[in-house]
Specification:
Largest sheet of chain A: 6 strands, parallel
Radius of gyration of chain A: 27 Å
Order of helices and strands of chain A: HHHHEHEHEEEHEHEHEHEHEHEEH
Distance between the termini of chain A: 77 Å
Oligomer: homodimer
Number of strands of chain A: 12
Amino acid sequence: MSTIYDVAREAGVSPKTVSRVLNGDAPVRQSTRDRVEAAISKLDFVRSHAARTMRSQRSGLIGIITGAISTSPGPGEPAGLPDIHIVQGAQRIFAQEGMTTLISDTGGRLDRVPELVQTLLEHRVEGLVYVAEFHQKVTFPRRGAADRLVLVNCYDDAGTPAVLPDDKSGQHALTAGLIARGHVRIGFLTLPERQAAQPLRLAGHKAALAEAGIAFDPALVIPAALLDPLHEYDLLWDALDRLLTLDEPPTVICCANDKMAMRVYGLLRDRGLRVPDQISVTGYDDYRIISNFLHPGLSTVVLPYEAMGARAAQKLLRIIRGEPDSSTAGIELVAGPPVWRESVLSQTSKIVEFQSNGRKTT
Amino acid sequence: MSTIYDVAREAGVSPKTVSRVLNGDAPVRQSTRDRVEAAISKLDFVRSHAARTMRSQRSGLIGIITGAISTSPGPGEPAGLPDIHIVQGAQRIFAQEGMTTLISDTGGRLDRVPELVQTLLEHRVEGLVYVAEFHQKVTFPRRGAADRLVLVNCYDDAGTPAVLPDDKSGQHALTAGLIARGHVRIGFLTLPERQAAQPLRLAGHKAALAEAGIAFDPALVIPAALLDPLHEYDLLWDALDRLLTLDEPPTVICCANDKMAMRVYGLLRDRGLRVPDQISVTGYDDYRIISNFLHPGLSTVVLPYEAMGARAAQKLLRIIRGEPDSSTAGIELVAGPPVWRESVLSQTSKIVEFQSNGRKTT
DNA sequence: TCTAGAAATGACACCGATGTCATGACATCG
DNA sequence: CGATGTCATGACATCGGTGTCATTTCTAGA
């Protein structure tokens, strides 16, 4: 592979002049520039990133650590969107800014993170993004990159800048939308309580109910673990059964994620209930391949992974550039809108009922 | 960031000795090693990848170009597994071998490939993997890396080493399995003909039928485009309708991919047909989130993306190391097995019928 | 005790760019 | 016409490691 010296000799100029042509950082006479460019293409010259990094002390690299590329979580584990979309969003922004991303995958083994960080530091990354598989609290082993780190889909106690989905507002919007469509009895198959998103979602749900003057009924909210179908006993079936056999059963089932909703479609069909005519269903995530291609289409809430990745990238870039922005520190929430598809029926008669209801109460 | 010189001074040795400790490429007295290691951790020293690359002329980097991370294909487009799994498989192998992967995403714009290749060459990648989104023919702009390139999920006219899914054997195994379960009238909703996988799948299908002595009925094979549900008229509905209204309708519908099968579940339900009691359904891809969590579970064929990625990585490593293996050149097929879940009913009575049939014929 | 050969370490150049500073060629202006 | 400033270019050192070869220190055998 030819070097800048070869090019310089071929063009009859000094290496420094070639460098100037390549970087455009100082004036070069047009005729000289032409000669240099001719030499470059004649010799198939390609700059050495290593050499310029060494001299300039700027690598132009950003490290992203993720489990995204690794195999999916085991049975019973949270099944949100694949976090690869977060990576995509971040990479888009970094590419725009001329930075190259170095994506390291944990392969699902968190204990390998320090090793990955080490490799990234060897490459002299200018910043680090850590992407978690689902909304959670983490303890990231900072090292060297202590102050050039942004967490996505997770947060820590150390006050590291982070970008999180706005679970509260997402569920709030969904529930409010259901209420606007006339639903009053809203069943809620939730995530396990230990999931960081769960209390937020529930808070959003309750807030929306309260704003509409609908009393919160704890019987309608059931944690529903989603087990691998190979397991004989499906906890989801049980949770659904408890909802449907209530004295006053719900007119809509809110599922904690689209995957769960997909399973609920099948379970409802087994019970002879048609979606949405006899019962409405919603999901969460807007996992397109499910929500868009299930039949009928699934109403759900967008989990804005791409946007979160992009936000994180922008935040990190600001930090790197030392732009002391208020938005640089602390936690940033990104909200995703509900998407209404065919799985939710508007209970027109009840809309009226609710509206009067809503006015009477509060 | 401290350098090897700082460490050398701190430990009272020469830089070269520090290098030896780091690389373990020459004997170092234990006491010296200890001093050096103490200095390294005291100074938080991290090697500079740029410097060693420059001197040793080995970057330890592999470039992967993909559209995987980019947004999903538009409506009507093929909807196989996300090719990120191919990347994952390749990265696993490369990591094992101590190589770091530099993943570049086209963002869905093929015209940006040359630009990405340029960047990868600047980083002096030792090899290149190109990952296509679905089985297809491509023309990859070689450059510099001409002879250190492996294609995955695609192939070209230039005889570039490639790794492809064995579509023929996959469909053959599926059809044979259906026949073994007593199905004789097998409906086949296929990919568009222009898809590279399609003729191969059909060939596998026909071969399995022929081996069982079942006559091929063209009326049972219909290309079925999968449109976005927002489009009012669903070509899939039409194709399915044509199959179901045949004089002798199929007892099983083979779908070209799991996503299509998921939609077919819904459409069949609309027609009042229960899966698998009244009609069986199969997919293709083993897109886990669908096949495993649909209810009932979907019988399908594994599209072995992870394995393909791993194979491609191994092939590229052999090429880089100059191990002139027969498996280094040409196309390598990777077969995936069928996975039988609840969506296929064994027609026990018909099994007998078929077996006698099979013996009588041929 | 002396010496050959292995073990351990160091001196020095070099990988391929770019930052700094110097210099020659020209244009502008009083 | 000389002073001054700008433009265009080059010389040289340097970034942080490692390859090559030389040198010193041990160890063991004669």
